[in-house]
Amino acid sequence: MKNIHISIILVFLAFTQCKQPHPNNTNGANSDSLNIVNVKTAAVIHGNIDQSVDVLGVVLSETEARPSFKTGGVIHKVYVEEGQYIKKGQLIATLLMNEIDAQVRQAEEGLSKAERDVNRVKNLYSDSVATIEQLQNVTTALEVAKKTVEIAKFNRNYSECRSPINGRVVKLIMHNGEIVGPGNPICGIMGIGSADWKINAGLVDKDWARVKVGDPVIVTMDAYPSKTFDGKISEKSSIGGNASGTFDVEVKLKQNPPNLAVGLISKLKIMPTTNEKMTTIPIEALVNSNGRSADAFTIVDGKAKKIRLSISKLLGDKVAIINGLEGVNSVVTTGSMYLEDGDLVKE
After folding, report:
1. Residues 108 and 148 in one domain
2. What is the span of the domain harbouring residue 301?
3. Residue 122 shares a structural domain with residue 199
4. Which among 231, 275, 290, 347 has the fewest CB atoms less than 10 Å away?
5. Is residue 125 domain-shared with residue 146, that is, in the same domain?
6. Whole-structure pTM value
7. Average pLDDT over residues 111-129
8. Stretch 24-45: mean pLDDT, rounded?
9. Calpha distance 317→281 (Å, rounded)
10. How confident is the model at residue 142 (pLDDT cuts 50, 70, 90)?
């Protein structure tokens, strides 16, 4: 029995000896090593950013025409159809000439009467029967009659509507037998020459301010998926869109595709020749971003320090920052999502 008690005491002493801390280790050291977060950092970059502007554009025709009659009347015949290609000077439509021809004959008869009146008054004036005033009056009436004939014949000549450009009829507005007024368009014609095509695109204000006339553009179209076309900005609008809030730029191609049509969608990559100076960091450094602002971390004396950033724009895998990086040389990338302000970090 005595031996059993001695064995129990020896086991107890051995257990208590195992629980004693090692003289070369402390609880504080263990705690600190567990709280250190391993991270990676990236440098803050200040400098010019050569960034393209990507935007969608629409193919349009720069040359358009809406031919009309000089005088009103009843349309006798329309000689073109929608989709038809026409040449400059080609006859589009004519008016019924009954009324117009009658006006010409009326003016010519008035001219004949004025000529007879002048001859008669001249004879009377030479015989001292008519006065100088009467001679002047009939002479004036003769000049008025001549101009009336000129007007009537001019209107008759322009009772035919002809195309002012080479192009394609995209819309037929008036038809045979309809009454048309002076200046009312008969049809819409779109120019289809190589110099007539353009691509319009709307840019937001920041991108609009970066580009200028002459900047190169790379154009791709779904209609020609395996090809790219070189162009340049030919015009830059100074007036914003009414509702879109964008500003138009016009792009001209150096060499047009074999076929183009109004409404084709194009993808434009504009390369501004004026680079923009920006401060950028990797996008993975951002935490708690709402699109306009975000948090990030930098390292100060081995600890994570949270900084608030204002975002300018996204640049692929980078983001441009307006402010918040003053005096900061690097930001935490890998591991930033797990940090709190003041955490111990190790690169």
Report:
1. yes
2. 37-50+276-346
3. no
4. 290
5. yes
6. 0.54
7. 90
8. 68
9. 9
10. very high
Same domain (yes/no): 191, 265? yes
**Per the domain annotation, does 259 fall within a domain?**
yes
* Tokens read off for 37: 């977060």
CATH number, position 135: 1.10.287.470
Give CA 251 to chain center in angstroms. Answer: 9
Give per-residue pLDDT as tens, 283-333.
Answer: 999 998 887 899 999 999 889 999 999 988 887 788 889 888 888 999 999
Q: Are residues 132 and 72 in the same domain?
A: no
Number of domains in the chain: 3
- For residues 74 and 166, state if they share a domain: yes
Retrieve residue 345's tokens.
């970090």
253 lies in the same domain as 186: yes
Q: Give Cα 212 to chain centroid, integer Å.
A: 13
Does 231 fall in a domain?
Answer: yes
